[in-house]
């Protein structure tokens, strides 16, 4: 797309909002994974037990926060995204039909040039933020999560599902 430089590696936005919306407020509660968090994640079950035994430090170097933690669709506990998503323009896609510009304002307003939030959500990727409880309480048979379905509840935790958008480009003049 004109005016954008393609990224060598996809980045990922964790977004909240009405899937049918083209614009909205609340982008101050969105985050960005500049590096794919999946391969850096820790599998639920025995690997998570090993993470706890290591004092919560993952092999990839991130630190597990037992009060605020993330799980992806395949049952990997992930590092949190960077919050808040910085104001600016992002070339986003759900890797389906729509690739468009997402504009995020410093006031938390957001808008897509084309399509809806659903159109730029990568449906096979699922992510949820859990507060309280423990990943040790997860039911392993709930994973992997069906594309487009909600992430499973985990006993003792409050869950917030996030849409996952692929960032494939940034304005040509911005640093990557």
In words, what does this structure look like?
The protein has 176 residues and is mostly beta strands. It has one domain (4-171). The protein is built from one helix and eleven strands. A hairpin with a 5-residue loop joins β8 and β9 (110-112). It is globular, with a radius of gyration of 16 Å. The chain starts with a strand and ends in a 5-residue tail after the last strand. The mean pLDDT is 95.
Summarize the structure.
With 176 residues, the protein is mostly beta strands. Helices cover 5% and strands 34% of the residues. Strands 1, 2, 3, 4, 5, 6, 7, 8, 9, 10 and 11 form an 11-stranded antiparallel β-sheet that branches.
Gyration radius, in Å: 16 Å
- Average pLDDT confidence is 95
Low-confidence stretches: none
How much of the sequence is in beta strands? Answer: 25-35%
Q: Describe the biggest sheet?
A: 11 strands, antiparallel
Task: Give the distance, in angstroms, between the N- and C-terminal Cα atoms.
Answer: 16 Å
Structural class: mainly beta
**Pattern of helices and strands:** EEEEHEEEEEEE
- Cα shape: globular
How many E strands? 11
